[in-house]
Amino acid sequence: MLMDVQTLRELADVDICTVPKESLVDIRNVKIDGAKERNERISDYIRQVKNPYCFQCNGIIVKMNFSQSEGTLEEKLAGYFLSV
Questions:
Q1: Over the stretch 8-47, which tens digit does the pLDDT of each residue have?
Q2: CB burial class (10 A; 0-12, 13-18, 19+) of residue 58?
Q3: Residue 53's domain spans which residues?
Q4: What is the pTM of this model?
Q5: What total of structural domains would you count in the chain?
Q6: 3 pLDDT higher than 90
Q7: Residue 81: C-alpha distances to residues 1, 14, 17 (Å)
Q8: Angle between the 38-49 and 73-83 helix axes, to the nearest 10 degrees?
Q9: How remote is the C-alpha of 70 from its chain's centroid?
């Protein structure tokens, strides 16, 4: 597991109305090496973005939500990086 469940819950609970924008990573600055193995790409993404549920893009705060029936964050990231 990349992060423990408690940490993921805390990151998912970030309130976009109160989170300081400057504390969020701009997704445009995240660079992933497509030549790396899937798990390494996922780890790189999380290391760079810091909060996979909340980040900014060109000054706009973005919050990601997933229903439990759609799979875990790890499964979503794995699916994304398999498509890259």
A1: 889 889 999 999 999 999 999 999 999 999 889 988 999 9
A2: exposed
A3: 5-83
A4: 0.70
A5: 1
A6: no
A7: 16, 24, 29
A8: 110
A9: 16
